[in-house]
Design a protein that fits this description.
With 346 residues, the protein is α+β, with helices and mostly antiparallel strands. It has a single domain (4-343), classed as Catalase HpII,  Chain A, domain 1 (Beta Barrel), CATH 2.40.180.10. The chain is built from eleven helices and twelve strands. Strands 1, 2, 3, 4, 6, 7, 8, 10, 11 and 12 form a ten-stranded antiparallel β-sheet that branches. A two-stranded antiparallel sheet has the order 5-9. Helix 1 packs across helix 6 (170-177). It is globular.
């Protein structure tokens, strides 16, 4: 297994490269578009082969695979609580957890880079993740998978594999981003440290088709916002904090009461792209609040429970259906590959 100091050194080189690229992009530097316009060999692969390429690219980026760990968002904290639907949720969808009483939930907060022991205040720990599993009365469950950036760097699975492979090489990354506005926006966008897992906003990057009992269907994307508000740290503030400050802060926060997170669905207007998670919708699009998460405690045996647990964006129930966004299939297959490896101890 790759040692943490070696991986941190590699990540520091990566961030210096992306910082250089960010500055060049902001300055309007031009790059030769040969790589960006050439057809990728991945275009000829099956969906599972592309998913394997994505997982392999994450392994290369983070020095994996690390036995028993996720290929991305490996460091996390598993909590439990309850979801209470909002009064207007049924106007959007007939889904069982929108129908009435509260249901139990598992919620996993996580850091981005899949490096065991990576400090919470390392730059590669952003964007943060939040995955929620709703346990329904009939024994079924359904998931939301979100992260703290409103969008995605690319639209297609093949492009995502290429993006990940380009990340360690500034020249290759510059060439890739030169013709892809979403990738450029992702690289340019600041990703500040949250003061708390419970004071960060999280976004579902793919659209779903919500249908109510009257058969009225609308496309929408999840948004999860903390009731306490969003709070970020400066680089200097984050640097003074211990490696696991987010875990300790959440433990302390929960000792004083639940963390409340409101879940809404941003609705697409005519012409908004519902099959492209790399293109965010304007903020003036209407939202319907569907309910409230009340996170109550951190689970005991946290690491063991996390390894066994799968959060899958296409784990859906009646009243919520996938859009045609190809990243939904790719993410589902990638998560399955990663989960199967964990079960095998790889």
């Amino acid at each position: 297994m790759t040692r943490l100091p070696e991986m941190l050194s590699r990540l520091e080189r990566f961030h210096r490269a992306t910082s250089f690229l960010r500055a060049a992009l902001l300055a309007g530097a031009a790059f030769t578009p040969g790589l960006a316009t050439a057809q990728s060999q991945d275009d000829l692969q099956s969906p599972r082969q592309v998913a394997q390429a994505v997982v392999g690219a994450f392994d290369n980026l983070f020095g994996g695979p690390h036995a028993g760990q996720r290929a991305v968002h490996a460091t996390g904290l598993l909590t439990e609580g309850r979801f209470v639907p909002a009064s207007g949720a049924l106007s959007l969808s007939r889904a069982g957890h929108f129908a009435g009483g509260s249901v139990p939930v598992l919620a996993r907060f996580s850091n981005f880079a899949a490096i065991p022991g990576l400090p919470d205040n390392h730059a590669a720990a952003s964007p943060r993740g939040l995955a929620v599993k709703f346990m329904l009365p009939d024994g079924a469950d359904t998931d939301i998978v979100a992260h703290s950036y409103d969008g995605f760097p690319v639209a297609k699975p093949e492009e995502f594999a290429a993006f990940l492979r380009a990340l360690p090489d500034p020249a290759r990354l510059a060439e890739f981003a030169s013709s892809r506005p979403a990738a450029r926006a992702f690289l340019e966008h600041p990703k500040p440290m949250p003061a708390s897992y419970g004071m960060e906003a999280y976004f579902g990057v793919t659209a779903f088709r919500f249908e109510n009992s009257a058969g009225v269907a609308q496309y929408g994307r999840y948004r999860l916002r903390p009731e306490a508000g969003v709070s970020h740290l400066s680089v200097a503030e984050a640097a003074r904090l211990p490696d696991r400050f987010l875990a300790e802060e959440l433990k302390d926060r929960l000792s004083r009461g639940p963390v409340i997170i409101r879940i809404s669905v941003q609705l697409a207007a005519d012409g908004d792209p519902v099959e492209d998670g790399s293109r965010s919708w304007p903020d003036d699009r209407p939202e319907i609040e569907v309910g409230t998460l009340s996170i109550q405690q951190i689970l005991s045996s946290n690491d063991e429970r996390q390894q066994d647990l799968r959060f899958v964006p296409t784990n859906l129930v009646g009243g919520i259906a996938p859009s045609a966004d190809p990243m939904l299939t790719a993410r589902t297959l990638s998560y399955r590959i990663s989960a199967d490896r964990r079960e095998a101890g790889q």
